[in-house]
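User: My advisor, Dr. K., asked me to get a structural model of this assembly before our group meeting. I'm new to this, so sorry if the format is off. These are the inputs:
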Amino acid sequence: MNKRLINNDILLCDLDAFFASVEQLDNPELKGRPVVVGGDPDSRGVVSTCSYEARQYGVRSAMPMKKALGLCPGAIVLPVNMTRYKEVSEQVIEIFGRFTPDIEQVSIDEAYLAVRAGTGLETARKIRFAVREELGLPLSIGVSINKLLAKIACSLAKPDGIRALYPEDVEKVLWPLPVRFLPGAGPVTERKLNAFGIKTVGELASFPLEALKSIAGSAAAAAELKEYASGRDSRKLELNAGRKSISEEITFSQDIHEKDYILTVLFDLASEVGYRLRSKGLKARTVGLKLKFPDLSIKTRSLTLPEATASDEKIFKSVVDLFTRCCGNPPWRLVGIRASGLERERQLSLIPGGDPGEEKITPVLDMLRQRYGRDAVFRGRRLLLLRKNDFKRN
Amino acid sequence: MHILANKNVLLENLNIVQKSIPLKTTISTIKGILIIVKGEELIMVGNNLEMSIKAISNDIQIFKEGEVVLPVEFIEILKQAPDENIEIKISEDDFRTEIISGQANFILYGMNPEDFPLVGFEKNTDRERIDYSAQELKNMLKKITFAVSQDDSKPSFKGVLFEIDEDNNIFFIASDTYRLAHLKTTLNNKDLQPLRMLIPGKSLNEIMKIIDDSHDTVECTFTGSDIVFYYRQFIIYSRLMENRFPNLNNIFPSTCATKIKINTRLLEKAVSRASLLAGGYNHMISLQITEDALEIYSGSEVGRMNEKLPLSAKEGDDLPEIMLNVRYFSDPLRVIDDEYVEIEFNGAYGPCIFNYQETMENGLLNYRYLVLPIKIDKKDL
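Assistant: The format is fine. Below is the predicted structure of the whole assembly, which you can bring to the meeting.
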């Protein structure tokens, strides 16, 4: 880890209603109107992002498009144009890069930045100004000294604002908030905590650790919750120094016991990693598996392939192989796949190495996916996930 | 069994037999060396179930015949023995073996020779046979074996295809799917049945190391399941592989876009310099051919280089840029013993082919080597 990151201010920059904002930017006549980006309402599509105007009607992300249109009949529905969003996202990251080299991009519209201690608020203002001036996009920034407080500050700053939340404000600002503001307190944990009379972060902070263990499921999970509730967070920024790896992981809202379900999730993650590799024209030499258990212990294993690959099938086979060898004891709390040893060049072969069927179908699937979204076409196996629909992407 | 021998006489043979002793195996007897003392001879045998080597020593004082399997430590014991003279005594009931050298006494717990899997080393008239001089065979093998795949996921490519056609042409072919080495000779002195067999690359590699550049004869005899080489005091047996080597006979294109002739050693040295900075997992270099020169580039995170070489002849188009694995491109240069080499190119993504001929005792040796380039995948979404 980078030494410079000790004693830094941490910013969380989050583009407000990003997809909808980009659409409003590209089509000025949509400004001030309820814009909903997502799947087709006639084919059970869901809302991916909606503008703040649409949110006033109660429209939310992940809501079925039909329901969204019921709430807000005047909404303008647009398909997901990921290529364009990625392009804009890269421009935003470029602006961040002028202020600090230490950037952890969390998703297409969210990034943590580390800046020199004491300069956080001032830098945040400059960044927000630059993004608005140059790209015309609204951006919310949370300023603090760790990821947790920056994230919470950012949710308080939304929409289109800046908010600082320092350790000395924890008692006044953080403690009155409901526990769901904390990472690791998903709906299930929240319900359990509520049942014990813990509604606010402050109540959680003063709750005895011993008693918390049975609620959180393990000593480690309880300790982590307590740390967060006190506004402490030791997680470091994961800096993307160039593109060294591509990874995908899922934290389950409930620990998973079924191996079959895990394998399905792994297939889903493998397709995600494969898609991201292919869309960048990369192949990976090394495939890694990450598992997290209820006691928060983490296992990672990786294997190096004889030939670099971007095939969903091959990535999946490798992780299944790793999973079979080191799955540990159920249940699992998180699974992730990491592809590293990335290369752009490919040694041609006399004998076609891959499955010819897969090689034909993959570009078609990628194209469909790129044009119509993640769920335009998928393996039957994925239905298991959609049915459960209880996990969130990290 | 009871003998007296010179340690160097024993070690000369053991060093060869050792090549067929498996490093990892669960069968304890094959982890050792079978020793047979019979008549005037001491015979030592190793067997890793793919390859077995038998060596015969004569300059031994034999007091009593017998057989035993000794653990591999026997070899190191001989190497470190204080005296030239080694006395070996075996108790016939429990195979305890006493090794005496100077003041040093060793007891090795030998194993029952009946448990050792012995393969058929006998010369047999119903086996097909080809003779080569050691020099000739070594020369052919070294042009082929480097192209054998090391990848366990491609089992068929871990062998060398040996083929005899109706016209008594003999082919040696090896490929790791990225490149292919192809050698053709003719055999005039004997009519052989057409055949195709896949010989483990590892076995041929060992043969290549065992034989030297002499004119001593190597008798190669084979059946459908094995091949046996007789060379001096050694007999080398190798199992054949299940022949699933694909038919790659039409792999060489009949035309080419660019053909050059260039000084072999000059190119070899320049490519070796380029390899110092060849980057990535594919150890990539790139080549460019203009009217009268071949230019080589390479580069990695640590730096880059380029070098221009004169061509002695060129036909066809210029070559804009081709990227190649530096090892795949330089391997054939090391085995081409001619002042000039002819190389054909077929654009940036087509095969690159080396052509070379040499006169052997039995006639002409035709060598062709094909390597496929590296393609840079453009961002495609």
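One thing worth pointing out at the meeting: Chain B touches chain A at residues 151, 153, 175, 177-178, 180, 246, 248, 251, 280-282, 284, 323, 325, 349, 372-381 (CB under 8 Å).

User: Perfect, thanks a lot.
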